[in-house]
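Thread: "does anyone have the structure for this chain?"

Original post by V.I.:
We have the sequence but no experimental structure in hand. Need at least a predicted one for the grant figures.
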Amino acid sequence: MKLKLSSFHLKIIAMTLMTIDHIAALIFLPLFGAESALYVSFKLIGRLSFPLFAFLIVEGIFHSKNQKKYLLRLGVSFILMGIVLWILEKTGNSIGNFNFFLDLFLGASILFFLEMKKLKKLWAFIPFIAYLCLCIFDSSLPSYIRLGYHFYGILLILGFYLTQKITPKLHSLLANRYQLDSEAYENVLSKRLLSNSLALLFLVVVNLVYWMITYYVPSTDVLNASMQVVSLFSGFILLFYNGEKGYSSPRFKWACYLYYPLHLGILYIVYLII
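Reply from O.Q.:
Generated one for you, tokens below.
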């Protein structure tokens, strides 16, 4: 199986899917309602975006040349988006009720500390507890410090992290099982493809469990939960990830971070015009 998608491709796909999701929420929902075919179809497609972002956060921590700068970029993006949301909230306008970068920043912070040696790993409890507190007190928080995906978000990030961690050991175990050396077995099943397959399996299980919990818990939004389950199909996109960085430049990196608030602003202006 030939793997053709780099991190660059995944970012472009994730941002495109996210834009489709926001077109549904900011334009089609107020214009046509939650039961319209346009809203539902765009929303379903857009649900595939977050698992890709969660996966890219893990890849960023593992492969970034400077993890501290990577965290800094996420932190700056979280603060800038928070300022935008705060200003809009104070002026009586709203283009979103959560700060997407907070999920990514705290998730990446947890992984950053987990990658440290020995007792330093314990520092991961600080962003982890902060994440849990934000989940618990979500309803009483202003939009600029609200998580977008709550327990689902951190579960995906940690799950993708663990699949990456266990891949080398599982690959060696399978090679021994079929009495092949690691290099020979790499030609049969590469570590990258094994890791991608584990990510897909994890994504399927998490989304099905998530749907079952929300379906049987009273007062939960079953419609949105059902829509979110569609995100498991993003795992099939991850199957084609080749583990390579692809095109990258400082301008492109910052463009990816700035795209989020900019495209929301543009969509909001379009909504006002319409």
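V.I.: this helps a lot. The chain has a mean pLDDT of 85.
O.Q.: and Residues 42 and 235 are 19 Å apart (CA to CA).
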